[in-house]
Amino acid sequence: MARRLVAGNWKMHGLGADLAEVAAVAAAPAAGCEVLLCLPATLLHRGAALAQGRIALGGQDCHRAGQGAHTGDISAAMLADAGATHVILGHSERRADHAETDAMVAAKAQAAQGAGLVAVVCLGETLGDRDAGRTLEVVAAQLAGSVPEGVDLARLVLAYEPVWAIGTGRTPTEAQIAEVHGALRAGLAARFGAAAADVPLLYGGSVKPGNAAAIFAVPDVDGALVGGASLKAAEFLAIVGALAGR
Length: 246
Ligand code: PGA
Hints:
Distance between the termini: 15 Å
Strand content: 15-25%
Oligomer: single chain
Largest sheet: 8 strands, parallel, barrel
Radius of gyration: 17 Å
Bound molecules: 2-phosphoglycolic acid
Number of helices: 10
């Protein structure tokens, strides 16, 4: 059985004043699932002091190298040092804004796990892919390319995030989510064997308190990666409650 997880992705949002939201999430006990907030790197250290291990914290990207002459980049060890236990990798916004390829994401995942972090690897089709009937082909290729050989399955989470559902208020149908999650589960099992059943598969893209319960009822959905609705504790906790109470 895969662990169940609700992960928030603050993206490029959040100043010191917003740490009150982290404190509020950490103060609410969530039985039955893990809770993760992926903060801007600038807030991790202060966030960790507030969270005190009651929720997990993560970064949103890391460099593939352990250290070096890479101005402006952050290594996985730096994230861990600041209090992160997880890192989001290969989010579609990074694939689009920073031309990240599957191979780059795989190298980052290797670096993240090498520093002891859980790699939350994101994949998902564009609207063009879906309209062309290429969704399963695209996510299978991303899965093959973005998850490195020798990956530690115990420190891997996959997030299926259709690009067209992110920040748009549009979500796939439950049948569409089930189809992709089933394919991801089968793809993992074909490559890694029975242990792949333990890898949490998150759905992401316009998850809100109003649709979370229906999404969590879809087979092979073990939780969510939440963007906009993770910025306010009350909204995020309502989503956590929908999974914890399932
Ligand atoms: P959203 O973002 O919930 O705002 O659609 C999800 C994500 O990009 O992780």
